[in-house]
Amino acid sequence: MSAACGGYGEFSDEQELPQRLKQLSPRTVIIDIEPLVAYWDSTQDTLDRGITHVLDLVAAIPSVAVVCFATNSARRPSAQPRSTEVHVVYLASAHKPVQIKPYLSFPRPGVVIGDQLLTDGLLAKRLGYAFQHYRAPLTGAPIGPQLLYGLGRLARRPIFGSGRHPG
Question: Out of 43, 66, 71, 85, which could bridge 59 as a Cys pair, Cβ 3.0 to 4.6 Å?
Answer without folding.
Answer: 85
